[in-house]
Design goal:
The complex is a heterodimer. Chain A is built from five helices and three strands, in the order αβααββαα. Chain A is mostly helical. Chain A has a three-stranded antiparallel beta sheet with strand order 1-3-2. Chain B is an all-alpha fold. Chain B folds into three domains: 70 residues; 183 residues, no CATH class; 136 residues, no CATH class. The chains are: A mainly alpha, B mainly alpha.
């Protein structure tokens, strides 16, 4: 299943913020985590992650730091700020509302059989 | 393996060409590339294969460059791409005839107006009042062409100029009118903001575009000053050479000087647009040199006037100088902001800027105090009203800017907030200047 581009774009910010809420991380690890979480269904063009991260930094949602980890290469780490946490909470509120609304609207024509049919 | 290293180096060079992607971003992307390659390698792929796949997953370079460009406008600016498409840049050499055309038109407009008003023998207030109306429409017009705006946006761009022309020329000014001089001083500001509309391609809502315009204004001032300097030397030498030969130098000057000053407005705009790299190295240096100097000067002035009091020395002339000083400081602060990398954390330059802002704020409070006392004593006049309004507008701006900068220095807010305050406040300046032009003269009976 290919997830719609707009949907991916809209969910990218809360997704990244949520992953960073579990602790600091860096670009490639973030991306792997997204793949794991979505079971590979959530394909990003890898490069697009970076402009997004830079935007989060500009907005003050994350701090950045260049560090050399024990295994060698210099790497840029991102960590969530309090403001980023607040933004994440706000995103969560909005997504829960969206999901609940869709759930209400879809009651009656239950999508579950369709999903199972595909699986 | 060496082959792959070679490939990575080539890839790095290629990615780094994107105007909005800087060296550190390439480092970050390379780290990503190598992380992906290592994972693919451990899954059994060869180094070449994993390189290919990793590069493909990063996405096409064009898309990547565009996404970076969207986030990092400030960097784009340095590479002079801005709203233009790539082919426009490559044909950059051919933009000058159009700019020159508009510059010549501005010069002709000024000369025609000069001849019509019989300057300098006749009554020159008409010319003074209309001076900015003779020049800035051509700068706006040039931007309309350059941004390839359609007919409707072009007409919208013309509206403020038409309204201004009507207002300025239909008001029944009384002789030696003070409000008329105030209008002459405020109209250029209003019209400059009117240029912002075509400059930003009609997108005045975005903070990023507003900051672009601030940046443009700063660079334009620098270029204009440079042209004026060169022009001054040229004029001086011309006079020196022609005068002994018995040529009527004054007549020559009357033709050359206004034409040059008017044409240079458009030419400076063109230079900012197309020769960005030249100023781009100079601008941060200039702000870095002058912000501390102004900060020291302002701090000293604030202390001196706080000790001696403003009352005795305060008169109309001093008030004018104070206002000019405050405006220059604000311009410096704004321009320094636009030249700054927003991602950087607070440094010494921000501290110095805060000193300048706080000192300017202190001076402004003193000026306001003196002015309110004077108005209480002698009542409102057009000049006092205009000055009071300007100082209030500046006071609010400086107070909030100082407060936000303090928060920023303490790490309690982001630079983005500080910057956004200034961009949101820009319409207030434009609005106040427009109010002085439109509302003040009828309020005081055009006196």
């Amino acid at each position: 299943m290919q997830i719609d581009k707009d949907l991916v774009a809209a969910s990218a910010t809360p997704l990244v913020l949520a992953i960073l809420a579990d602790g600091e991380s860096y670009g490639y690890a973030l991306l792997k985590r997204v793949r794991d979480l979505s079971g590979g269904e959530f394909e990003w063009t890898d490069g697009m992650l970076y402009p997004l991260l830079h935007r989060l930094h500009r907005l003050g949602y994350v701090t950045t730091e260049w560090r050399v980890p024990p295994e060698g290469r210099r790497r840029k780490y991102y960590a969530l700020t309090d403001e980023g946490g607040a933004a994440l909470a706000e995103h969560q509120r909005q997504w829960v509302t969206v999901a609940r609304t869709l759930g209400e609207a879809w009651r009656g024509h239950d999508p579950l059989p369709l999903l199972l049919g595909n699986a | 393996m060496d082959d792959v290293e070679h490939e990575i180096a080539r890839w790095r060079a290629h990615v780094g060409q994107g105007p909005a992607i800087d060296g550190r971003d390439v480092d970050e992307l390379e780290d990503h590339l190598r992380g992906q390659m290592a994972d693919l390698g451990s899954a059994g792929l060869s180094a070449d294969e994993s390189f290919l796949i990793a590069v493909t997953r990063l996405g096409s370079l064009d898309d990547l460059a565009r996404e970076f460009a969207r986030e990092h406008r400030d960097r784009l600016w340095k590479q002079l791409v801005l709203a233009d498409t790539a082919d426009d840049v490559s044909s950059g050499g051919r933009t000058w005839p159009e700019a020159l055309g508009f510059a010549v038109l501005a010069a002709i407009a000024v000369q025609v107006a000069r001849l019509l008003s019989d300057f300098p023998e006749g009554d020159s207030t008409w010319l003074v009042r209309n001076a900015s109306l003779l020049v800035l429409p051509f700068l706006a017009g040039w931007f309309v062409r350059r941004r390839r705006l359609g007919l409707r946006p072009a007409l919208v761009a013309a509206v403020p100029f038409v309204v201004a022309a009507l207002v300025v020329n239909l008001f029944p000014w009384s002789p030696d009118s003070n409000t008329e001089l105030l209008v002459a001083a405020h109209l250029p500001v209003v019209l400059w903001f009117a240029v912002a509309w075509p400059y930003t391609g009609g997108d005045l809502r975005s903070d990023g575009r507003r900051m672009d315009f601030v940046r443009f204004t700063g660079e334009w001032v620098i270029y204009y000053a440079l042209i004026a300097l060169g022009g001054g030397v040229l004029m001086g030498l011309t006079v020196g050479i022609l005068e002994p030969a018995g040529v009527d130098v004054e007549a020559v000057m009357l033709w050359v000087l206004p034409s040059g000053a008017a044409g240079a407005v458009v030419v400076a705009g063109w230079l900012v647009e197309s020769k960005q790299q030249v100023v781009e190295n100079m601008a941060p240096v200039l702000t870095m040199v002058f912000t501390p100097l102004f900060a020291v000067m302002l701090a000293v002035a604030a202390v001196v006037y706080a000790v001696t009091g403003l009352g005795g020395a305060f008169d109309r002339e001093l008030l004018g100088i104070f206002d000019l000083l405050l405006i220059v400081v604000l311009g410096l602060v704004l321009y320094g902001m636009s030249a700054r990398d927003p991602a950087e954390s607070a440094g010494w330059a921000d501290r110095i800027q805060l000193v300048a802002v706080v000192s300017a704020l202190a001076l402004d409070v003193m000026v306001l105090g003196a002015m309110v006392a004077r108005i209480g004593e002698l009542g409102f006049t057009p000049n006092r009203t205009a000055a009071l309004g300007l100082n209030l507008v500046l006071l609010v701006n400086l107070a909030v800017a100082g407060w936000l900068s303090t928060l920023f220095l303490r790490g309690r807010t982001t630079f983005d907030r500080v910057e956004r305050w200034q961009t949101t406040y820009l319409p207030v300046f434009a609005g106040w200047a427009a109010l002085v032009v439109v509302a003040l003269p009828p309020l005081f009976g055009f006196a």
